[in-house]
Amino acid sequence: MANWELRTTENCAGRFYVDSTCITCDTCTGVAPLCFTLTPTHAYVSTQPKNAQEEKQCHDAALSCPVNAIGVHDGN
Q: Regarding beta strands 16-18 and 70-72, do their DSSP bridges make them parallel or antiparallel, or are they unpaired?
């Protein structure tokens, strides 16, 4: 499960985030290419979802992440 306290600094503000356990597998950018960006060392959320389709893609990316590095922060 992703850890809000370990999120990478590049994540844009919002609910979805990638934490430092990312292994740069590129799964998230394949599932939700408009919201995730890959660097040589990790992925991050570059744009929060803007509609229901992108929201579903981000949830699918989180479910597909092999190391559970993608999280959804509920604000608490």
A: antiparallel
Predicted TM-score (pTM) above 0.90: yes
Which of 72, 73, 14 shows the shortest CA–CA distance to 47? 14
Helix (H, G, I), strand (E, B) or coil at 42: coil
Helix (H) or strand (E) holding 60: helix 52-64
CB 40 within 8 Å of CB 46: no
Confidence (pLDDT) at 56: 98
65: pLDDT strictly greater than 80: yes
> In the chain, what's the furthest Cα-to-Cα distance?
31
Mean pLDDT of 43-51: 98
Helix (H) or strand (E) holding 44: strand 43-45
The neighbour count for residue 58, using CB atoms within 10 Å, is 25
Q: Set out the domains of the chain in order of their start, with CATH numbers.
A: 4-72 (3.30.70.20)
